[in-house]
Amino acid sequence: MASLKKVVLAYSGGLDTSVIAKWLQETYQCEVVTFTADIGQGEEVEPARAKAQAMGIKEIYIEDLREEFVRDYVFPMFRANTIYEGEYLLGTSIARPLIAKRLVEIANETGADAISHGATGKGNDQVRFELGAYALKPGIKVIAPWREWDLNSREKLMAYCEEHNIPVDFAKQKTKSPYSMDANLLHISYEGGILEDPWAEAEEGMWRWSVSPEAAPDTPTYVTLTYEKGDVVAIDGKAMTPATVLEHLNKVGGANGIGRLDIVENRYVGMKSRGCYETPGGTILLKAHRAIESLTLDREVAHLKDALMPRYAEMIYNGYWWSPERQMLQKAIDDSQTVVNGDVRVKLYKGNVSIAGRRSEDSLFDDKIATFEDDAGAYNQKDAEGFIKLNALRMRIAAGKGRKLS
Amino acid sequence: MASLKKVVLAYSGGLDTSVIAKWLQETYQCEVVTFTADIGQGEEVEPARAKAQAMGIKEIYIEDLREEFVRDYVFPMFRANTIYEGEYLLGTSIARPLIAKRLVEIANETGADAISHGATGKGNDQVRFELGAYALKPGIKVIAPWREWDLNSREKLMAYCEEHNIPVDFAKQKTKSPYSMDANLLHISYEGGILEDPWAEAEEGMWRWSVSPEAAPDTPTYVTLTYEKGDVVAIDGKAMTPATVLEHLNKVGGANGIGRLDIVENRYVGMKSRGCYETPGGTILLKAHRAIESLTLDREVAHLKDALMPRYAEMIYNGYWWSPERQMLQKAIDDSQTVVNGDVRVKLYKGNVSIAGRRSEDSLFDDKIATFEDDAGAYNQKDAEGFIKLNALRMRIAAGKGRKLS
Amino acid sequence: MASLKKVVLAYSGGLDTSVIAKWLQETYQCEVVTFTADIGQGEEVEPARAKAQAMGIKEIYIEDLREEFVRDYVFPMFRANTIYEGEYLLGTSIARPLIAKRLVEIANETGADAISHGATGKGNDQVRFELGAYALKPGIKVIAPWREWDLNSREKLMAYCEEHNIPVDFAKQKTKSPYSMDANLLHISYEGGILEDPWAEAEEGMWRWSVSPEAAPDTPTYVTLTYEKGDVVAIDGKAMTPATVLEHLNKVGGANGIGRLDIVENRYVGMKSRGCYETPGGTILLKAHRAIESLTLDREVAHLKDALMPRYAEMIYNGYWWSPERQMLQKAIDDSQTVVNGDVRVKLYKGNVSIAGRRSEDSLFDDKIATFEDDAGAYNQKDAEGFIKLNALRMRIAAGKGRKLS
Amino acid sequence: MASLKKVVLAYSGGLDTSVIAKWLQETYQCEVVTFTADIGQGEEVEPARAKAQAMGIKEIYIEDLREEFVRDYVFPMFRANTIYEGEYLLGTSIARPLIAKRLVEIANETGADAISHGATGKGNDQVRFELGAYALKPGIKVIAPWREWDLNSREKLMAYCEEHNIPVDFAKQKTKSPYSMDANLLHISYEGGILEDPWAEAEEGMWRWSVSPEAAPDTPTYVTLTYEKGDVVAIDGKAMTPATVLEHLNKVGGANGIGRLDIVENRYVGMKSRGCYETPGGTILLKAHRAIESLTLDREVAHLKDALMPRYAEMIYNGYWWSPERQMLQKAIDDSQTVVNGDVRVKLYKGNVSIAGRRSEDSLFDDKIATFEDDAGAYNQKDAEGFIKLNALRMRIAAGKGRKLS
């Protein structure tokens, strides 16, 4: 077992990470530094202070990272129209690099030689935390208690709490969700419980951030998003910070039943898992970003972005945000966004996001050329013949030599 | 001007292609063969016979190609989860190769040396028809009247009709949609009119195949699709042919407000254009196919398919269905589908398609490994440490040598 | 420590795997089955029998797999013009899947529950052996002694031999190469020793399969390769089996100083390593295969293959030959090769392979079109204008709207 | 026929473009501006002045663009290890964008409304010139005489000269190469003549820039290249400008028989053509750049570059240097090169370029980890087990459920 001096723990203030804090103190005889961040998970972070203090922890970091999270992680990711496996908006994945970065920075500030987190040994999050930490501070030690200890059942955990005087809110434990959940400003996720049967439909009672489409208002809501360099900077004409944009869209999206997703996904560690996600604001952002790009991006740039996107999504899903290859791709993606400016008007209605209009000073849409009416010579239809003939040439030669298509 | 003996015309029976038939006879002094196909556009094809006969046409082909269309074109395309530019389900694009193939086959049967079509010189369809024709019969001549004649306004067209005794249904002309439309079993499309302003929302009255989400039933409809090798073979337990599957899904999808799309797309000929599409059945198929694949496909196969898809979609959109590169990709895609078997239960509600469940004898989902509960040793969490450490190694080395990530 | 019944060992007959055989017997108290294959490494395999018998091993497999190796592994790989990191012809990588497959088959035949190999914990080969074994027989146990034991120096190994009466040919040990080497019909590799300094030039004395370009004959050798479906089936008009083709090309290539390579490569386990390789026949095959493809493949098929190749090479290098994604890609690659037939004439001279000619019944080269002389109308130069105009359209529109290229 | 005011002609000073100059004056009754650039083609450019003056041309541009050519076009391209169709170093392709840019700039300076060039209607160069011109100045007119006039034989051209008093150097015409050639600092190319038979070996007498490997010195030459940010900045310790670097490498490469290539390539206009190329310096640059990257680039960055390269090469070959997609990719490529610093020692010998050593302050090669000797714990071999186990997990699950690999 590694000898540790001081460890920075990603601490939620909840029961599991409280047990971890105690277990680290006891197992490694080391100092523990707690780090609790508000990334929009919707729970108070301040109460974590008292809990940490109660365990004798002296260095306690509690931070509001919402703006940084959306500005430096969520928005750059949406510039690429990023989706994993055709469906997943990467709500959990994108929050991890920021946590990893802060853990390392706090380790540097406090002279800690290790970090620790509460992710299990079966999931993607351990990978994301640890790849990030190793990439930013190669000599760091990582303690992943769920991979080490034997407290692998609720009963053993409770026994540990009793033994170590960790206060348990039994009322809360009883009403605890049967699902494993994770939330931040971009989404809330659900795993486990009946979801472990992919044929079982998710219960209505599970969802927390959105009303069902059935329960959403009977009249649509229209919202206008203003883009600058690929990011939303204003809603309905009102300038907003990145986090405020996402909070606003979550609210209006959730109220209109938008952003529920139920998928089976492939984890980086090699297994399939069922997950349900609510991403109201992100769902709107993806649709709207494609709309403003459709007007402003060159065709080949757009296609190149589409071709690169699955690889970029894999990088983020698998935990390689902090990698030179992600940064290299980001350079190309960001370069494409300088012209992605303008307005998108979206209609939100009972689960649907549809585009009601898009306009831009940087529009490449040319109605004089596109028109079905007389275009006054803007486009010479005769050019099409040569275009087709030469594009067909290789196939005409092949067919002329008897080559068959089957 | 090329000298022609006989030309096979893709003939809808409508006014434009009637003018073309006459114009071909007159301009080229050649025989015209008409070819009219039912590919599910929702209009009777038999009336085309009398109209052709009235113009003195002797060789008249009228065919029901709906099954062939869905079985050999639509279904293979959906095996790849094909979408163009992130949104478009390629409803128009995928119908063209079948028409091109039949035009060439009929030219071979009738001894014709040319084909003709009614697509304009600004669009993608001319490219799709002609690339297909050249690839299948390299010596064929192609007559594209819209690129040649000077009948480039409604007025001139009408004058031509009057002059040449082509009967015009003036009542129909008056109530004519202001949109340029195209329909087949997969979709109906709208272009032109007010859509030429990308900021203008499409009018409710434009849409023909679906009710609006607002007007759809207040209770959801559940449908179970059964897949074999990536294709739907039964709905709600009832075996169906490919065309029947799509017809059924169009009906139930359209009734639930599903499949409307409003986009600005990039044409192969180089301009942006605004299009609206209704693809009720296709929208359900795409979502359901991803769901059955999520359970049955290996992760890397799925990711490889996602990486190849944009290129495959471009091939179809640009008119390269009849090309060796499309066929090469299809081999890989089809190979992946042998295991894509099972059931998907979808919920349709006011424009939303959501997945209520998926199950398969070929499922790779392993609940014993994925579970949050005790997995009885099926998965060794300790393996994750080595997995992460070696995946991080290149970045640890780089960081250790002072390489910075920015 | 796992309890084992019987283990199949990839046994070279050399000292290291002899120690492993003994160590397995002693450590796991299990039966050992040895498997020794001739894959063209250039050493007798039969002597392994007596050595194994001397250790009391009863089930001894000695096999000549040269034809299978070239036919089912080397040739399919060369159909894709496969190179890793722009240089490496994957000589070691491609031999591992065959060994893994036979280890698993022998485990099935002999009722063994484990396999073992002599690859170290730092290299790629452990990964290739084990991924293959797990993919083909998921419940198999794998014993990798170099990752388990503490015999991690030459001294300890020798002490173990003495202690366990493993005969050591001290004469041979003394003249032992300072390099770690691996050979099969495709190549021989060198690592370690002075090569661990990337600035140090490899010594002439290291190379075993080829003369130096300086020492090669002063007159060139011409060889004509005949291809069928992408594979060489005859040399200079004489039909040959796959292994004979490669043996012949190794001989003539080596004699002409062809196929030496000195690179720094990136291992799958995360580190860079320096390797030197001699691949005389493979170097000729790659050049010649590109030449016959240049004449017979459609342009877009060729470009698609080039785009897929780096991913395919990664699969093989990283050990995923036995994976559904490699098989899926192979389907597309093999589909492209049906037309890759004809002759290539290569000139070999002092390290150079150059193409002296290529011809094919399936050639798509059309001299009537390609000619600089009068082509009698086979190609209409005027088509080029439309081709260029429409390909430029998107950029003309952008520039017309003031969009700048920097 | 378009009405022209003034046209800028890419003027070599040779017979063909002299005819074009006259033909433009006569056919369009317009002023002609000549533009003659030294891009290292190895011929004097100054004599073009007198020839242009003799035709009454008043605005004559003669420029030495060698440094700009190598610095802004050749070097950026080599940062991507760019090769078209596995072989071609793009020597012709990369010179065209610079010419197109200068033609447009001169049109802007002189108030010309058109440009003209001497490329034929069958080749790639017309496309490259014109796409570049349209992208940089969308309203420009392009006159491509070879697509317009009827002077399509040597005889007609000569008759035109006689008729228009264009002086013909008959001595030179007689000894004219039977090949169509193009040269710049990166390469010289040959097409036509006996090369139109792909089975015919190129004659020794054709090659102009390099001695044959047979005729090259019997002792090798060693050269050390120093890289900064992916570009060579010094040779054998002597700082050099970009053009000087390439000139020097051409000289030493050519003297050692390096850089001859004989291929059949696929033109963008749809036909296959046979070309021979001499690229002595470029051949050295490609090999050396890969070597310095092998030491300094992260693995995934290198692989991503390899995956993107074929697309990037297509862009350049097809004439899309001046496009937003090429610029987007360049951003990613250039970003990767900040660490590509150090020295590469190459050995040149009778046609061979081999790497004798590479070293860098930015090396990621870690001999403490890579070593076959005891690494003192720098790498934990046990990590490999978990790495392999989890990478195998998806395949173990599949095989465990009976999924077969064939």
UniProtKB/TrEMBL annotation, chains A, B, C, D:
Molecular-function GO terms, alphabetical: argininosuccinate synthase activity; ATP binding
Presence of keyword Nucleotide-binding: yes
Stretches assigned to the Arginosuccinate synthase C-terminal domain: 179-397
A Gene Ontology cellular-component term: cytoplasm
Annotated residues for binding of ATP: A10, Y11, S12, G13, G14, L15, D16, T17, S18, A37, G118
PROSITE patterns cross-referenced by the UniProt entry: ARGININOSUCCIN_SYN_1 (PS00564), ARGININOSUCCIN_SYN_2 (PS00565)
Keywords: Amino-acid biosynthesis, Arginine biosynthesis, ATP-binding, Cytoplasm, Ligase, Nucleotide-binding
One of the protein's GO biological processes: argininosuccinate metabolic process
Binding site for L-aspartate: T120, N124, D125
NCBIfam families: argG (TIGR00032), PRK00509.1 (NF001770)
UniProt record similarity statement: Belongs to the argininosuccinate synthase family. Type 1 subfamily.
HAMAP family membership: Arg_succ_synth_type1 (MF_00005)
Protein name: Argininosuccinate synthase
